[in-house]
Amino acid sequence: MELLRFTTAGSVDDGKSTLIGRLLYDSKSIFEDQLAAVQLSSERKGLQHVDLSLLTDGLRAEREQGITIDVAYRYFATPKRKFIIADTPGHIQYTRNMVTGASTANLALILVDARKGIVEQTCRHSFIASLLKIPHLIVCINKMDLVDYSEEAFNTIVEAYTEFASKLDVTDIRYIPISALNGDNVVNRSVNMDWYQGATLLNTLETIHIASDYNHIDGRFPVQTIIRPHSDEYHDYRGYAGRVAGGIFRPGDNVTVLPSGLSSKIKSIDTFDGPLTEAFPPMSVSITLEDDIDVSRGDMIVKQNNQPHVSQDIDMMICWLNNKPMQPGAKYYLRHTSREVRSMIKEVVYKIDINTLQRISNDSSAGIGMNDIARVRLRTTQPIMLDAYRKNRNTGSLILIDESTNETVAAGMIVD
Predict the structure, then answer these.
(1) Which terminus of the chain, N or C, has less C-beta within 10 A?
(2) pTM for this structure?
(3) Dihedral pair phi/psi, residue 325, rounded to 5°
């Protein structure tokens, strides 16, 4: 069954957690004990309704303040598709958590309060979704019950967002009027908005086309480990295991192993359930080659006539995740696919003003602190097999790790 990963985004109190709770509740994806606990918590807070946002807001501080702080993941399935939801915070100071939740998403739900319309955080999170190359956006105009389910209010927000989105690098944007609190157009069609003829949110999530979101052209297979059973049955077996990051691999394909540049042919593609005639993203497989060549963790198997850029100099956009500010010239571990090397930040080109989305040139006032987004240049001690993030989100992304604390300090997206 196909898996769809999606994230929520938007300003504080736009109803992100309530929407996810409603989606889980109306699709009957909540266990009875979970619902009972939420009902009890709602009664203790003196509410006259069941606060479905408590299904995702698990931290004590989140429940006390009624906000989302950390990323909460929820899993559910319908007969048509499986889903992983990342409920991300709306506050400016938790931008890094929003980036974390959105980094693997196929789709983003952008929530807009029907009373307030497009606000600063709406633009900010839409920009981050565009920066992370999330291919699909669903703009949910929430709290329609508070504007008397007005079609005019819905159309005004659609026009304003459409104008703003013309500056974004997103091609698939859809608009749905909803009331997460009452369930209008979330799972079931709304009787209060008969003027809306489009699909409900769940129906859109079930039917939106995501198969073409993966790069099936550029063959990329980062090697995670070497399989050597040393058993009587598989005495000479040598398989290179990993997850296909791009392209389609078949037995008989001519391939090159990077960074060594040695060439061979694919002998077989194996899984626990048996051999395959082809492998494509995001399948996890073991590939065997016809020649005994030196391949180890961190190497990448690619098509001979379609290779990534191999370089020790990297230009990328980063989101800084650490409390300690970035220090130009500082050294960090760089982890890219299954490869880990040491690196040094050579230059900060500019950073993005998170409020105006304008570029701030590199000067003494442009320090990079937590939640900042900036373009930087790095130098690595060993070559890295690179693709632009816009071409392949798997081979175009990386993280930086502090050498002394082993903390992940930044997430990066490689640019052309």
Answers:
(1) N
(2) 0.79
(3) -60, 155
- Flag whether pLDDT at 65 surpasses 60: no
Asked whether 336 and 297 are in contact (CB, 8 A), the reply is no
Q: Which pair of tokens denotes residue 315?
A: 């230009």
User: Could you count the other beta carbons within 10 Å of the beta carbon of residue 282?
Assistant: 12
10 Å CB burial of residue 274 (0-12, 13-18, 19+) is exposed
Q: How far apart are CA 345 and CA 355, in angstroms?
A: 25
Q: For residue 221, give the H/E element and its range.
A: strand 220-222
* CA distances for 341 relative to 38, 63, 337, 401, 413, angstroms: 46, 41, 11, 10, 17
Digit-coded pLDDT (tens) for 160-217: 999 988 888 888 999 999 998 888 999 999 999 999 999 999 999 999 998 888 889 9
Question: Rounded to whole angstroms, how far apart are CA atoms 203 and 168?
Answer: 25
Among 183, 145, 177, 133, smallest CA distance to 158 is for: 177
Sketch out the chain's domains with CATH numbers.
Answer: 3-213 (3.40.50.300), 220-303 (2.40.30.10), 309-414 (2.40.30.10)
What does each C-alpha distance from 95 to 5, 99, 210, 414, 415 come to in angstroms?
19, 6, 26, 19, 21
E-state strands within 259-372: 262-271, 274-276, 284-289, 300-303, 309-320, 331-336, 339-352, 359-361
